[in-house]
Amino acid sequence: MTEPDDAYIAAVDARLQAAHRDGAETFDALLRQAQGADPVVVAQRAAAMCPPVCTVAPPSAELTPRPDSSSRPAWSPQLHPLRSEWYFTSQCAQRLAQRFGRGRLACLGAPTVAAAATHAVLFDIDAPTLRARFGTAVESIVSLDLGATTSLPLRDAPRFDAAVVDPPWYAPHPLHWLALAAAAVQPGGAIAIVVPPELQRPSAAAERSAVWRAAQAIGETTLEPQAVHYETPLFELIAMRAAGITVPSAWRTADLIHVQLEQSQAPPPHAPPPAAPTRFDTFRIQDQLVMLAHNDRGGAPGLTAVPRTNDYIWDRVSARDPRVPDIDLWTSSSRVATVHGRPAIQRALETLAAGERVHDGLVAEQLARVGLG
Question: What pTM was estimated for this model as a whole?
């Protein structure tokens, strides 16, 4: 993660001090009230504020990994951070499905809501993976890269009665996904779009304001603080442990903007976000999803560690970390590596995905370092 600026640090400090005054007596309680600030930042700032906050979360106690008592589902295949796969808790998904799923419901990146609803169409990037996770619980899945399309395919069906929208938490995706939903929901229908909490990163407050203004332009709008709750995915548990922190099983919350579309209001104009700087191929190897970048660094086939990682374990979930460009291979178990000799590594991953053994002993040994093979 890039170093946050002084204004952001001051805002985090103020929030943690307020949480402590309001009775936060454990690191878990402090984190839940930190308005989305990264757990590593919360731990660092709590330790720096001595007294009083460091008495709540002393590094020697709270930053020591503890056994995970999480009741989160064991998704198969596992969730992956490059796909922004933070899923709503089952209780949260049920509430949203009951509230917005009385008619035809569009779910944009909200598969647990689609699984809980009666008549939902899920628009997401990888239908085979989602079918493997949810089976027939989701009535209809349309494979679609929501970041690269200009409209949802409605075919001959009528527009939806409502949409639940859970975009990636970085601009311009929330604005783009809001526009997709607005064009697909009939006048008088509802859109529920998730926006990140104010301290999720330094730019979050400004990005929230932009979504709020766009929502106000198309209908009657209400902000519902901390209305959604997320499971802590396996990759985040592993990453935080590598950073010396154990996070609770469902600490992450976000706000919801509820838009009641006006009858005569046209949806806002929009364009897809720019393409990601690096493309990745995806392989399913047993329960893991493995992403392999299209970078070709040459050299003999093999993996090298990303700077400041231990045993190839990635210790962040932020895409803003300056080490991210060094990552060519990224697994759903939070293992990362720089890849040399990409064609041979790709062939080996294809072999493992087919359920076969890699015969090149040197390549197999390299992949075993990141838990593959």
Answer: 0.91
CB-based burial of residue 362 (10 Å sphere; 0-12 exposed, 13-18 middle, 19+ buried)? Answer: exposed
- Could you identify the residue written with the tokens 């009657």? 220
Contacts of 251 (CB under 8 A, 6+ apart): 28, 31, 32, 39, 232
Specify if 75 maps to a domain: no
Q: pLDDT tens per residue, the chain (373 residues)?
A: 556 788 999 999 999 999 989 998 888 889 999 999 999 999 989 888 866 666 665 444 333 334 444 455 789 999 999 999 999 999 999 999 999 999 999 999 999 999 999 999 999 999 999 999 999 999 999 999 999 999 999 877 889 999 999 999 998 999 999 999 999 999 999 999 999 999 999 999 999 999 999 999 999 999 999 999 999 999 999 999 999 888 888 999 999 999 999 877 777 767 778 877 789 999 999 999 999 999 989 899 999 999 999 999 999 988 778 999 999 999 999 999 999 999 999 999 999 999 999 999 999 999 999 999 8
For 354, other C-beta atoms within 10 Å of its C-beta total: 9
Together in a domain, 100 and 129: yes
Residue-number span of the structural domain to which 40 is assigned: 6-62
Q: Is residue 68 part of a domain?
A: no
Retrieve residue 7's tokens.
């204004």
Say whether both 101 and 22 belong to one domain.
no
